[in-house]
Design brief:
The complex is a heterodimer. By secondary structure, chain A is an alpha/beta fold. In chain A, strands 21-23-22-28-20-26 form a 6-stranded mixed sheet. Chain A has a 3-stranded parallel sheet with strand order 9-10-11, with no helix packed on it. In chain A, helix 4 crosses helix 10, helix 4 packs parallel to helix 12 and helix 16 crosses helix 18. The longest helix of chain A is centred in the middle third of the chain and has 16 residues. Chain B contains 8 helices and 10 strands. Classes of the chains: A alpha/beta, B alpha+beta. The interface between A and B is large, with 44 and 39 residues.
Chain lengths: 856, 293
């Protein structure tokens, strides 16, 4: 679900096909019948944006029919935990949980906590709670065990019962009514999952951006997590939830992030007001129990990697040098800030927002408002060329001579022209070797960053301005190699892995210390250079080692191939089944053993009970596998860490032709809506003008092109196999709107209108939703103004409604209108768009709150 | 007509290489696991430096290649099929999307080779059929001779976007089964790139065994419509060097149901022509003789 794996991850999909050849059942649930559906044993169509209803229906099916894996659920999840008596469900409050603050448009989660225990960090302070920029690692329990539990799962306030009640209305009939699939289709999937889970069998979910790119994206994935925990499919072979990433090493760029709100290894970015000192930072973010209890060691080691000998206990290891965040500085907010001249200069590496970001039209205006822009890419992408070829030049909204942005387009080296690592979807680091030197002036990003830093430091070297200290104090020495003086990628990897006070490579994060004697660039990657070996560079063939293949590359953390794999054994440490045996307790040796590196204290007995006052990992009992959580359990119910509720709830997308049949609250109340005159919303159901946009609009990707197309539209062989922007419509919609296969259509939202060739296909079907026929319009988002094949950009059509937890855009389920023929040219296209209704801004508490804060 | 005489000789090709003959190599394309990624098309073009073809949206499912030609040596067909047939694709829906990567069949009895007047087309030591572009004179006899429409002549006007570097203009082109790679002991580019092993490369007799096993397996799974296409050495072209597992009739994929090498009847045709000529000559003689009377 939420993934078109055969088309978007064809190489990884070979393993799905291999599993199928060995008898696995493949189920594909998706708005479109895709190349993945064609390979599936079973395909179920659903309406874009209705995933939680479908998955919630499965949760209900499991609980109604007693299909949960009881021993697993009781011992390994927080199902038995009693929740605070103040907690109120969406079932009580018609779409809200308790703690909603209407004025600030956010939740206070104190009523979501475990009963009898104050969970630290539960009452979020206003700054961090509002801005959405702080990451959370869940509750910090005073000690590892919740005080009130009911192992019989009967207590009305235990998580299990709360869950049961929350999903009781997600019946097969309701699922069918919301999603548009038949009751039979839904039941077949629910039953197949239950039948194929338990002691002897496991099932896996694969998802991609079809799940994330919603205003409820995080909660969709959470629903799958609930299913997998109830069915006992986590930490076991053939189970789990696989997040298929958007492109090569996107996992790596989250682990060692290009995100504004986290530091390497998911350490939160310090906040300007909340985190004045290192002690404060650690105190507020470390969890006394679970592996986050060692945050001080990870953070100090990171600072030692950044600042080397200049980081000392006396100066808090240069903690004060780190940049701070003061609000939302994510992609979309940054674009709005460019429009307001708050952001003056910008670096773009491997990203093409003028095509690839939601409301790419707005991004072009934003880029045109900068003073300077550095673009490093393989070709002149639209985000570098907008000043001379943006579609807004045609409408007269932008004029080349009025655009002041100075664009520096720097040629980048491709992956075969540099050494480095890719981290793939299952956390596996694989090294790639340079095959040839980059041509002409093309250089690697590593080369650019290193030499840019070196030159800046040279320019500042005589400065005594305190603001230059963070740069001058950096440890910025890497050996260079080759004719272009490329910094050694191996040396960077070694720094990421870490070293001790003697400068020897550390074995792993367990060796990291908070006293400044170790340095480590990313604690979860620690050990990837253990024994002074580039571990990701290992390429021992599969047939020469065990089936887990531990000597192919290196997986974080500690080369564990399946996370939380202690769950593959029962509470006593014995495999749940011989067939699914993976990691187990060896009583004779007094340690965990098995096919993989145990993701657990190697010698922690299954019957270990933490003594009073135990901290960090020592506070996790021997029968609790989820060691990153404060209580070592898989969380069916999330007391803290999420902005939009402890249990996933079906909400309609920001723009929907349908009312939410479950709650009065139409859409996720905590979602983020960014308002700007360039980014109005379509009126949604039960608002005036909603019927002007009767169709559901969703984006998709093709195998033949890569994301925003910069790497593929310029390649002749790829350009010719998908040569034009098109839209997919069902024969019924084509008949309704007079669209002809091979002809042209104009797709319209409140943002803009674009034209596309028409592909009429039986692969799209009208669905019956809430008793009405629903048509969906699907558009690939690969095209722009550049390359061998050009076309209009699908992302121009979307507004800026975001998930509140991760600020991702909702581009999988908006609304639109579609007409036959090409769009009007020039100014007339704006007149067409302006003839359509816009939503009135009902409440903009989020962006409004930001506005106030930044102004004060 | 030495080529027609060769037709009767078995086996064709590799045996004539004597000690240098290699086992006959080929492709087994199992379309039941083809995911339509077109990696075969791209890898083929990359390796063999086949030029970019015309750019244009076909409106025919995801097939913008259209057919095998001088500039497309692999072609993935996409068939959107509303059907009552159950089977391997979306068992519970009444719709399936068939995908199949087509290629030169490297026929046992190859008409293209038979009709080539210059000897540009030859059979390799691997039993494959290859055109030598530097020998080809562009006569184009092979184009209509192929019962599958595999071969085409490369023309400048087919290549609107191509720069001046295109080679082989005016001559015919098709899959070589990566003859250069085979000589170095590596598998053809398409098979190497195929992520699901839908395209399998190997010794033909082994591939045939494997394919029969695969069909049996699919039949056991209830996919009754699975069948092999071109694996039978007794068919009209003497069996394909590159054969297929299909999930429907060949026509559905745009393939001829019962291909016959057009030169098959050439000896008979020549015989008939000889007889007709003889009869004509006899008639003329008789007429002349009669006229003198």
């Amino acid at each position: 679900m939420g993934s078109n794996m055969a088309e978007c991850h064809p190489v990884g999909f070979q393993w799905v096909m291999e599993a199928k050849l060995r008898g696995a059942t493949i189920i594909h649930v998706d708005p479109r019948f895709t190349r993945t559906s064609a390979m599936a044993s079973r395909y179920v169509p659903i309406r874009a944006g209705s995933d939680i209803a479908f998955l919630g229906g499965i949760v209900n099916y499991i609980l109604e029919h007693g299909r949960e894996f009881r021993d697993y659920v009781v011992n390994y999840t927080n199902a038995p935990v009693i929740i605070n008596e103040d907690f109120k469900d969406t079932e009580d409050l018609d779409g809200f949980f308790s703690g909603w603050n209407e004025e600030k448009a956010c939740y206070n989660n104190s009523s979501w906590q475990y009963a009898g225990m104050r969970v630290r960090g539960a009452v979020q302070d206003d700054e961090t709670a509002l801005s959405g920029e702080q990451v959370h690692h869940g509750a910090a329990l005073e000690h590892g065990e919740p005080p009130e539990e009911d192992p019989t799962l009967k207590h009305p306030r235990c998580v299990f019962q709360l869950l049961k009640r929350h999903y009781s209305r997600y019946t097969p009939e309701r699922v069918s009514e919301i999603c548009g699939c038949s009751v039979e289709q839904f039941l077949a999937v629910a039953e197949a999952l239950c039948e194929n889970s338990g002691r002897e069998r496991t099932s896996a979910f694969c998802y991609a951006v079809g799940w994330t790119q919603h205003t409820i994206g995080v909660q969709i994935i959470r629903t799958a997590a609930i299913i997998q925990l109830l069915l006992g499919n986590m930490g076991r072979t053939g189970g789990g939830i696989m997040a298929l990433r958007g492109h090569a090493s996107i996992q790596g760029s989250t682990d060692i992030p290009t995100l504004f709100n986290i530091l390497p290894g998911y350490i939160p970015m310090p906040h300007a007001h909340a985190h004045q000192t290192l002690a404060q930072f650690v105190e507020q973010n470390a969890s006394p129990t679970g592996w986050w209890g060692r945050l001080d060691a990870y953070m100090v080691s990171l600072l030692k990697a950044y600042y080397g000998p200049r980081a000392t206990p006396e100066n808090e290891f240069c903690f004060g040098h780190l940049p701070r965040i003061s609000g939302d500085h994510s992609t979309y907010q940054a674009a709005l800030d460019m429009l307001e001249h708050k952001v003056k200069g910008f670096f773009l590496f491997g990203e093409n927002p003028a095509v690839g970001s939601a409301n790419s039209r707005l991004h072009r205006f934003a880029l045109a408002n900068l003073e300077w822009l550095v673009v490093r890419d393989l070709v002149e992408i639209e985000s570098a060329s907008f000043w001379h070829d943006a579609p807004e030049l045609e409408t007269g909204e932008l004029k080349t001579e009025d655009i002041g942005t100075e664009v520096f387009l720097l040629p980048a080296a491709a992956h075969v022209e540099k050494n480095g690592s890719f981290t793939n979807t299952q956390r596996l680091l694989q090294w790639h070797f340079k095959a040839l030197e980059p041509p002409a002036d093309c250089r690697s990003d590593l080369w650019f960053m290193y030499h840019l830093g070196r030159l800046i430091r040279e320019k500042l070297k005589d400065s005594d301005d305190p603001r230059d200290r963070p740069i001058l104090d950096l440890e910025w020495h890497y050996p260079t190699e080759g004719q272009h003086e490329d910094p050694s990628a191996g040396a960077v990897l070694r720094e990421i892995s870490g070293w001790d006070s003697e400068g020897r490579a550390v074995s792993g994060f367990g060796a990291l210390k908070a006293d400044g004697s170790t340095a480590c660039g990313c604690w979860i990657y620690s050990g990837c250079y253990a024994d002074e070996q580039n571990q990701p560079a290992r390429k021992k063939p599969g047939q020469d080692q065990s089936w887990v293949a531990p000597e192919w590359g290196w997986a974080w953390p500690s080369n564990r191939r399946i996370l939380y794999n202690r769950a593959s054994a029962d509470p006593d440490g014995k495999p749940w089944s011989e067939r699914k045996k993976y990691v187990w307790w060896d009583e004779e040796q007094g340690r965990w053993t098995g096919y993989d590196v145990p993701d657990f204290g190697a010698q922690k007995r299954p019957d270990y009970v933490p003594p009073a006052g135990a901290r960090a990992e020592d506070a996790i009992a021997g029968n609790h596998p989820f060691i990153m959580q404060a209580d070592g359990r898989g969380w069916l119910f999330v007391p803290s860490g999420l902005r939009d509720g402890p249990m996933p709830t079906h909400f309609e997308p920001q723009e929907s032709p349908f009312e939410n049949p479950l709650y009065k609250q139409q859409s996720n109340p905590a979602r983020k809506q960014l308002h700007h005159r360039l980014s109005p919303f379509n009126p949604t159901a039960r608002h005036k003008g909603a019927d002007a946009y009767p169709y559901v609009l969703t984006t998709f990707r093709l195998t033949e092109h890569h994301t925003a197309g910069g790497m593929t539209r310029s390649v002749p062989y790829l350009a010719e196999v998908q040569p034009e922007m098109f839209c997919e419509v069902s024969p019924a919609l084509a008949a309704e709107r007079g669209l002809e296969n091979g002809g042209w259509a104009t797709i319209i939202t409140a943002r803009t209108a674009i034209e596309a060739r028409v592909l009429v296909t039986d692969r799209l079907r009208a669905l019956r939703v809430q008793g009405q026929a629903l048509h969906q319009v699907a558009v690939p988002w690969h095209w722009g103004t550049r390359g061998l094949v050009t076309g209009e950009s699908a992302n121009d059509l979307f507004g800026l409604a975001l998930d509140p937890n991760v600020q991702i855009q909702e581009v999988r389920g908006a609304t639109c209108d579609i007409r036959p023929g090409r769009r009007p040219r020039g100014r007339a296209v704006r007149e067409l768009v302006e003839s359509y209704p816009h939503a009135r801004a009902e409440r903009s508490a989020h962006s409004h709150a930001h506005h106030e804060r930044t102004n004060r | 007509m030495s080529t027609t005489l060769q037709l009767g000789a078995t086996p064709l090709g590799p045996a004539s290489y004597g000690d240098e003959a290699k086992p006959r190599m080929g492709f087994f394309t199992d379309t039941s696991i083809c995911i339509g990624c077109k990696a075969c098309e791209i890898a083929c073009k990359e390796w063999n430096q086949v030029p970019q073809d015309e750019l244009g949206f076909s409106g025919e499912s995801f097939d913008n290649t259209g057919e095998l030609s001088a500039n497309s040596w692999r072609h993935v067909a996409f068939i959107e099929q509303p059907t009552g047939v159950g089977g391997v694709q979306a068992a519970d829906s009444d719709f399936r999307w068939l995908m199949s990567s087509d290629v030169c069949k490297h026929c046992t009895h190859a008409a293209c080779l038979d009709v080539c007047p210059t000897g540009a087309i030859f059979r390799t030591e691997f039993g494959t059929v290859v055109i030598q572009p530097d020998v080809c004179n562009g006569c184009g006899y092979c184009v209509p001779a192929c019962p599958f429409g595999v071969i085409g002549r490369r023309e400048r006007d087919q290549l609107p976007a191509a720069d001046g570097e295109v080679t082989g203009l005016g001559t015919t082109h098709k899959c070589t089964l990566c003859y250069d790679r085979l000589k170095d002991g590596i598998e053809p580019a398409c098979a190497k790139a195929c992520p699901t092993d839908s395209i399998q490369f190997g010794q033909l007799d082994e591939l045939r065994d494997r394919a029969r096993g695969r069909v049996e397996r699919l039949h056991e799974e209830g996919i009754a419509e699975a069948r092999l296409y071109g694996e039978d050495p007794n068919d009209g072209v003497g069996g394909f060097g590159a054969f297929f597992l299909l999930l429907d009739d060949p026509e559905v994929y745009g393939l001829p149901p019962d291909p016959v090498v057009p030169t098959k009847r050439l000896p008979e045709i020549w015989g008939a022509a000889f007889l007709a000529g003889a009869a004509l000559a006899a008639g003329v003689v008789a007429a002349v003789a009669g006229g003198r009377r």
